[in-house]
Specification:
Elements lengths: L2 H14 L14 H4 L17 H9 L16 H10 E6 L11 E5 L19 H16 L1 H11 L3 H35 L2 H15 L6 H16 L5 H10 L17 H16 L6 H10 L8 H7 L2 H9 L6 E2 L4 E2 H6 L1 H14 L1
Helix pairs in contact: 1-3, 5-7, 6-7, 14-16
Length: 358
């Protein structure tokens, strides 16, 4: 339909619908006729498509373009085309009051309105076989701790030697526990992954995968030459000795001496004398001044270490262990806090005796 016929159609519609009281639905792509800047075709001839009769019709019927409020006038043609591309659908709604969209709601899926959620790191629980094996090993280990501790305390005579011996014994116990735990985990893993049955299954799977593929001549020659070199060669492994000599050789690194160490003794003596001169020139303190200072200080009896250790009981020690963060390692032993929590019943009496003893 050419431009003149469109104008005539819109003029006839305006005359026929004037004074009409029923609901009127208008459908069609009128954007190029009302607002050429919002033309979906995005062509150069959009400015000549403007229809004055259609503007009169929309004003007389109080109809507003539903897409115009959503598109800013300052946008470019590319932005308008992108907006029309992202319009999903239009729905007819019953307006509670007179609004600019006349009850028509436009739902737009804009590309910039996206929700980003951070994925959580997957955590795998401890296998049941490893947990049971670790619990059994810990129970077996702690059964003999009290007897060994009592024997060590009876053998030592002085308190200083007893405390040092107990500290070394406790470090040895934790080291033995870590070694046993690692060994048990390694054995459990080896039973599941390094069995002969699994090796045979891997070989059978490899044979089935390589059965239908021809072998490469170049690869066979390379493997054959390597096999002959390793089985028939009589030369010593020179590269091995070269590696050992390089790794464990005595590498001397020459450095410059420090400036302070290179100074003469007289210079150092003058520096020390200059620093100690203000201290040594102070007036001598009289006994009356010392007594006055001590009398002004509020003195209170300091409890002995044995008194402080006697105040700590099992409940205080249990609360201290429970306040430790989970999945954390404290101290030089690098044992997790969960280890102290899981074996709380066995560890608390032993730790309490060690604490009071130290």
């Amino acid at each position: 339909m050419d431009h003149w016929n469109k104008e005539q159609l819109f003029a006839d519609l305006a005359g026929a619908l004037s004074g009409h009281s029923r609901l009127v639905l208008l459908g069609g792509d009128f954007n190029s006729c009302l607002h050429p800047a919002h033309d979906r075709s995005n062509q150069a001839t959009a400015h000549v498509r403007r229809s004055d009769k259609l503007s009169v019709l929309t004003q007389r019927l109080e109809v507003v373009d539903v897409l115009r409020p959503n598109v800013e006038a300052a946008r470019t043609a590319e932005d308008c085309a992108d907006f029309h591309h992202w319009v999903r659908h239009a729905a007819r709604l019953t307006a509670s009051c007179k609004s600019d969209h006349d009850g028509v709601a436009i739902r737009v899926a804009a590309p910039e309105m996206r929700a980003h959620m951070k994925s959580r790191n997957p955590t795998c629980p401890v296998p049941a076989y490893a947990r049971d094996r670790a619990d059994d090993m810990a129970a077996e280990l702690f059964d003999g701790l009290h007897e060994q501790h009592d024997a060590i305390l009876e053998e030592t005579l002085s308190s200083a030697m007893a405390a040092a011996e107990a500290a070394r014994w406790w470090d040895a116990v934790k080291t033995r526990f870590k070694v046993g735990h690692l060994q048990s985990a390694r054995d459990s893993r080896a039973k599941l992954t390094s069995s002969h049955r699994q090796r045979i299954r891997r070989l059978e799977r490899g044979i089935c995968e390589e059965a239908g593929t021809p072998a490469e001549e170049r690869g066979l020659r390379r493997l054959s030459g390597r096999c002959d070199a390793q089985t028939r060669s009589t030369d010593s492994a020179g590269w091995f000795f070269a590696r050992i000599a390089t790794k464990f050789g005595v590498n001397t690194i020459f450095t410059l001496e420090s400036a302070s160490a290179g100074c003469e003794p007289s210079h150092l003596a003058n520096t020390m004398a200059k620093g100690w001169a203000p201290v040594m020139q102070q007036p001598e303190v009289i006994p009356e001044a010392i007594a006055a200072v001590l009398h002004g200080i509020a003195w209170s009896p300091t409890p002995t270490p044995h008194t402080l250790a006697g105040r700590v009981g099992e409940e205080e020690l249990r609360r201290a262990l429970r306040r430790c963060k989970c999945y954390m390692k404290t101290g030089s032993d690098r044992l997790s806090n969960d280890w102290y929590r899981d074996d709380e019943e066995r560890l608390v009496p032993l730790l309490l005796r060690l604490f009071r003893f130290w």
